[in-house]
Write a structure and sequence with these properties.
Low-confidence stretches of chain A: none
CATH superfamily of the largest domain in chain A: Response regulator
Shape of chain A: elongated
Largest sheet of chain A: 6 strands, parallel
Number of strands of chain A: 12
Oligomer: homodimer
CATH architecture of the largest domain in chain A: 3-Layer(aba) Sandwich
Number of helices of chain A: 12
DNA sequence: TTGAAAGCGCTAACAA
DNA sequence: TTGTTAGCGCTTTCAA
């Protein structure tokens, strides 16, 4: 029995002949080791945990990009040969995440849509359960986070507009205090500075990443004394909202105003004109999440790499054109 | 030890005092039973399995509505107090689904995006592992499927158009042989018949549920000798494509042509005009999936309810108007 | 109503 | 290199 166990787990002390024979018979029998028994004795399962905040789903709100990343995560987990357990998050007590993970002898978790200040996250970090967050800065000996390089992405959007000859460029930023949102705004500011362009009063408007806020923020931009000829919008959904505001004002995209979004959600290719946008790759993000978690679970700490920031790619479509 | 077990599992043979005391101490200690140990001895875990085909994700294709239902499923699982394990589906052998489930002592699975003819599904049904499919007809003693009432939904779309005074109504159907798609077409045909309206030659065009096919199918409809004044499109993404074709032809929605979609994906509210559509409720669908699976796992067979068809709701927005 | 003991299917320490 | 034994944390007979 233990020989079989050793053979199946690729231990060195089994003779090649025996190993071969074990594998042979195991496959004939269609034998699969029982994951529960294994997790019980090893005190660690081969399943990764996903902690996914879905309050917004219950409220009827959609976060299409987050869903894309979750799909990417699923694919990446498949490739790694592990499984993914979506842990229940409803009993939102202070250490409910940790408990749920321990209950299932889960060795590491991915956090999606969770603010870094969430009380449940604290317990995770203190107990040093390997944890990787998406778009959420995490501080802990066995914690990291994965994000797109929001700053560089935003700067690349500005660069694109500058190359098209635009000089009066505005932005619709996300809410203040949210990491990815702040980074995109910083990238915008840096991009403008690098191009030697001034940021006019009122050229920075904030939204909340949802459609309506994009429309409203764009309206404020259009009301500016010196109307911008190009706008970087920090999220595609708001960018679509901006498109609406522009059309309502009787202006045309990209003839009168160019618009660049961020994310590359499906809708970016459904609207007309199709949105030029800074694309985040959900599949690559999923893969990075799994890689980081697995490495965190494998070795001890590796303090110098808290963040893994993936590069974005500017996808030029129909919503940007040379400055008139 | 056994008394504690009994108390925690609400067994009748424990005295109220003891039970109370056990609960008290357990909560003080923050005790949570180990799920692996439990699954091992019970030979059944409290975790539901999700088998989710993601080949399309790897191909870069999106199925926004399916993602919405998965989010709804997650919420419903939370409410039920169980957890959800996403099983790896990459080793696509004939009984890989079954093995993955057994390996994790999972008592029942939900199938998403899997064709009913998939070899892995056969094994599931033969072994009578409780299985619930979404939009996939399943035949088995312990299998059921959940779907929206596609037929009634399509008919309600036709009814809406008829009430607006339309008589020349066409449709962009989904691919033939796909259950939901066939049902929607049947609903369209029945709706027309109930209204006493003829279906003109060429008034039924097929697409593949993706954007481009909607545009192409709509073009064919526009080329008809007697151009329809209203069109029922069996999926929102194709409906958006149809909107494009109509605009390209220099016509306006809803002035010249009314369009009704199906699903109510996010994009339906992002395009202009916003899409009138037959809404499927992803949260309700998720809840039904969990309910059915749990009931299948609880009792023996209940042969008369193979299907659970949820009603849809017509959401009237800007893409439909009275016939000119 | 409670407790003692066996065992779920594995892995790991120890002996052979 | 292989086999024997104990034990992971529970549930469930069986006895008291």
């Amino acid at each position: 029995m233990s020989t079989v166990s050793r053979a199946l787990n690729d231990r060195p002390e089994v003779s090649p002949t025996t190993r071969e024979r074990v594998m042979q018979v195991a496959s004939e029998l269609g034998y699969r080791p029982n994951a529960s028994a294994r997790a019980l004795v090893r005190r660690r399962s081969d399943t990764l945990g996903l902690i996914w905040a879905t309050e917004y789903v219950e409220a009827g709100v959609r976060q299409p990009f987050l869903l894309d990343v979750i799909a990417g995560l699923k694919v990446a987990v498949d490739h790694s040969g592990s499984h993914l357990a979506i842990l229940t998050t409803s009993n939102a007590g202070g250490n409910s995440f940790l408990r749920a993970a321990r209950e299932h002898t889960i060795g590491g978790v991915v956090l999606m849509g969770i603010a870094s200040g969430h009380p449940g996250v604290r317990a995770l970090l203190e107990e040093e359960l390997p944890t990787v967050g998406f778009d959420t800065p995490l501080q802990g000996r066995r914690a990291r986070y994965v994000t797109s390089d929001n700053r560089a992405g935003a700067a690349s959007a500005v660069k694109h507009l500058v190359e098209l000859g635009h000089t009066r460029i505005g932005t619709v930023a996300g809410p203040e205090g949210m990491h990815s949102s702040d980074e995109r705004l910083t990238g915008f500011v840096e991009g403008m500075r690098d191009a030697g362009l001034p940021i006019a009063d009122g050229a920075v408007q904030h939204g909340d990443f949802f459609l309506g806020s994009g429309t409203e923020a764009m309206r404020r931009l259009l009301d500016l004394p010196e109307r911008p000829t190009a706008v970087f919008v920090a999220g595609d959904e708001m960018a679509v909202g901006a498109l609406h505001a522009i059309a309502d004002a009787g202006l045309a995209v990209p003839r009168d105003i160019s618009v660049v979004g961020f994310d590359d959600i499906e809708a970016a290719t459904l609207v007309r004109p199709q949105l030029t946008t800074v694309r985040q790759d959900p599949l690559a993000l999923g893969t990075a999440l799994v890689d980081e978690l697995l490495s965190l679970m494998a070795d001890a700490a590796d303090a110098d790499s808290r963040v893994r920031a993936l590069s974005t790619r500017l996808v030029v479509r129909g919503s940007t054109a040379p400055s008139a």
